[in-house]
Amino acid sequence: MNAYAVTPLEVREYRRLMASRCIELKQPVTFIDERNGRSIHNSIHPVIDENNTVIYLAIFGFDITERIRSENEIKRLLEEKKLLLKEVHHRVKNNMMSISGLLTLKSESGVNAESAAVLKEMSVRVMTMMGIYDRLYRSEEYSHIHLREYLGDLLNEISRTFLAGDSVRIDHYIDDLYIRQNSVFSIGIIVNELVTNSLKYAFPSGQKGVINVDLKKTDNNEIRIVIHDNGIGLPGKDTASLKQGFGLDLVKIMIEQCGGSLSVSADNGTTFTIIIPLT
After folding, report:
1. Angstrom distance (rounded) from CA 23 to CA 135
2. With a threshold of 0.90, does the pTM exceed it?
3. Closest CA to 279 of 249, 257, 247, 253
C-alpha cells in the first residue's frame, strides 16, 4: 500500500484539482492540506518539453505542523501582550488624569496667584503626557501616533486652561504625520512649554496677539517646528535673553534627547525654530 492510498479522499480530490490547474497554467501551484492532525505544504511543478507540453509533474510535500503551531502560539502571545499594554496605558492615563485634576483643584482653592499659575502649568504638563497614553489606549498601534490630532487637542487644552478671554489666539498648521510615540512625547513637551511661555510673557497687561504653531516634515526627513508670537519680543536677539526656568530647561533636554536643534529670533515678536530628525 502506498502513501497516496491512505491519503483522505477529500485531500486526494483537491490534489487532483491542483494538478489539473498546474497543467492548465503550466506554472507551479502551492497549497496546504490537513490530514490526521498534520499540516502538509504541497507544491506541484510542471516539467515542460521543447514543444511546451507538460510531460510530467514534480510534487513535493513538507510537514509544517510544528511551524504552524509555533506561529499560532506567537500570535496568541502577541494578543496577550496587546491586552496587557492596553491595560497599562489605560491605568497610566487614569492616574495622570487624577493627578491633573488634583493640581487644578488646588490651583482654584484660594492659593496665591503665583502658586496657582505654577499648579496650572504642572496640570497641563501632566495632560500633555496623558494625551499620549489616551491615544495609545484607543489605538490598535502601540508604537506610532498621529501628530496632527494629538497636538491639536493639546493646543485646545492649553487654550482652555490659560486663555480666559479672546485677547490671544492660538493658530496652528500641523502636517498629518504618523510617528513614533517617543518622538511625539518630546514634541508634545516642547510645544506645550514654548506656547505656555509665550502666553506668560509675550502679552502683558491684556495685550492682544496671536501665537502660530507650524509643524512640517522637511525634504531632509526632519520635523521643523516654528512657534511664533507677535508679542513684546525678547530684550536680546538669542536664547541668552530668554527667562531661564524649568520649562525652558525641559525644552532643551527634550531637543537634545531627539538630536535636534533650537534657534530663536526676536524679529516682530519671538520665533522659536526647532529641527528634530525623524528616526
Report:
1. 53
2. no
3. 257
In angstroms, the CA 124 to CA 161 distance is: 8
Single-letter code of the amino acid located at 265 = S
pLDDT digits (tens, 9 = 90+) for 170-228: 999 999 898 888 888 889 889 988 998 888 888 887 788 999 999 999 999 999 999 99
Instruction: Report the greatest alpha carbon distance in the chain.
Output: 99
**Cell reading at 16:** 487532483
Q: How many CB atoms lie within 10 A of CB 189?
A: 21
Closest to 170 in 3D by CA, of 153, 197, 200, 195: 195
Residue 185 burial (CB count, 10 A): 20
Burial 231-251, CB ≥16 within 10 A → b, else e: bbbbeeeeeeebeeeebbebb
